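The protein record filed below.
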Amino acid sequence: MARIMEHPWNTLKQLSIPIWFFDIEKENIYVSERLKSQWKLDSTLLSCRDLLRLIHKDDLAYMDHQTMTKENRHFFYMNYRVVNAGKYEWMKDIVTPFFDEDGNILGYTGMSAPDSAYIEELGRIKKAIVEIGDAFLSYNGQEFFDFLVEYLSSVLGVETVLVGELTGEAKNEVTAISLSFKGRTSSGLRYALKNTPCEQVTRFHECYYPNDVGTLFPEDQTIKDFGVESYLGKALLNSDGEVIGILAIMDNRTQTSGPLSKALFQIFADRTANELSRMQAEKKLEILSQYDPLTGLVTRSYLSGILEDEIQSTAEKEHNMALLLIDIDNFKMLNDSWGHTKGDELLRQFSRYLRQTFAKHDAVISRISSDEFVVLLRHVQSIEELREICDHVIHSMRRPFLIGEKEFYNTVSIGVTFTQERHRDQYSGETLLRHADAAMHEAKRSGKNRYAVYEEKMSEQMREELHLKQSLHHALDKHQFELHYQSQVCGRTSQVIGYESLIRWNHPDYGLLSPQYFISLAEESGMIIEIGEWVLNEACQQAKRWQVEDRRTDLKISVNLSAQQFKDSNLSKKVLKALRDSKLPPDSLILEITETMVLQDFERSTDTLNGLREKGIKVHLDDFGVGFSSLSYLHRLPVDAIKIDRSFINQIGEQGKEVPIVNAIISMAKSLGLQVIAEGVETSKHMAYLKQKGCYEYQGYYFSKPVPASLVIN
């Protein structure tokens, strides 16, 4: 520090080195002869106006004596650009203040910094490159950004360093990924870009204000709150050249390390942008992984996290919650027969249906497997409310989905689990899903197109079902299946005219099982076609034995086709082969189908049925009245008879009332020229009523339960 009485320049101008002196009072700059020659000047005395022509406009702030006086009481380095032969050259000077006896600054002198200063600065840049490079290897994501802002704040000696990401729908705000302010690191600060230095960065990719930035941007509240005097910002660009973020340093002092800061920014901006791009890409992948690409619904893994959060949060919200696991019945058959393109379209339409259905509920909807959907209902008042919701879903599915200009009718099975707030600690998300799954399988076992509410016994049933699935694969090989036969009787003659063949599984652990326990499992496993072929062959052979042994060539045998069998493109060939192998006449075989099977692809169904009937095979429509009956389809359907479902026959005899549905089905069958058969005839009242209405063919316990072939009496 120099203390002098006379004007400093009187002494300094005698030196032979390039040197200058800035006189604060006169606002003049004196330059030595050596510097005059070097800069090709006309005079050794420069005014502020001369300075404007000589120094780069972005570097003039360094010559602001008020700022220099306020901030610099010791020597410092100053970087600036001087025009020479029409081009700017970077200069680096070491600047020293001069004081009078009272400690007031008279001015500053500057001379070219020694090579050691350049070497020192280059060393700092090199050191920073190495250390930041190591950080890229050691850290990623948030850890890297936190390290970066802390490091730059330290190496540049500035108060604030920001790595921000452009956010908002119009990318019109900045959100701090990491912010170092006065030695403390944080994130999440968010502010609008408009009328801020950051807005300039997004427009011009770089912005440098060495001082007085608050005056330049008076509407920037963050600048005011942080007491920012200087600002340097650099845009972070992605591979397409789009601005995705900002790297900025801010300080409460005039910046004198502009070149160093810019050098570091130039080096690190690209690397920082790469890390930000990678982080954004990971976020996008994470978001994509949370949603099913086909339907846009939440995935199972994301739902599991939501469930766990919801279970924890119920302690504060004090509400009941519920899960509905909704399975599309017979979806595999649709995919196999119509192809995956139409199957995918059904899934998309069903997803839209669920969104519309639960739009007014506080719900999360997820697709957890091919044809299984889960609806999380966050606020449920009671189990009665749940039942109403499920009833609505079941009944609203009666409308068809239009796929490729064809109507597709389907049903759903729903498993329900209801969790009261006071019992929340007993469950995990996976437990609730398992319970809903167990309830859904109970609905399947009970005939589909319905819902079931979870009970503890269902978990045991699920374990039994798993055991059945495993042993089902060996049941055919081990000859565990057998057929039982239920007689069909003519009401006019009281003679048996045929039998319906019904499969049973003689399981080694569970005994004799009816189809309701294993047919759905066979459909899920894909074994239903193989089992169905066995039933067809066995029934035809047994019918032929009866015809020969009892000399009853008029006896008929009925075989139920599964949905997957009916969609099998080789169905006709397999049926004809079974007839040839057994030598059973085609007109002795009756194939029973359901309305739902036919309506899923009406045109293809009619072609299949016409082909079978042309060979002399009879076709009966089973369980009539419980499906999606449509007269517009029925009169075009190539069938020989309809079977009235037992649920309607059971209504006969109750208090002597008429049964309008039974009456209507019989009347309709007659008008269409179809035979009509009543299932589930159990009492003489049933038979008397049916005879009165003109139905003369019956099947039910009144005549015989299904029995093995050895117990059949013709």
About this structure: The first strand starts at residue 2 and ends at 3. The chain has four domains: 8-132, 141-288, 300-454, 475-711. The two ends are 128 Å apart (CA to CA). Residues 1-5 have pLDDT under 50 and may be disordered.
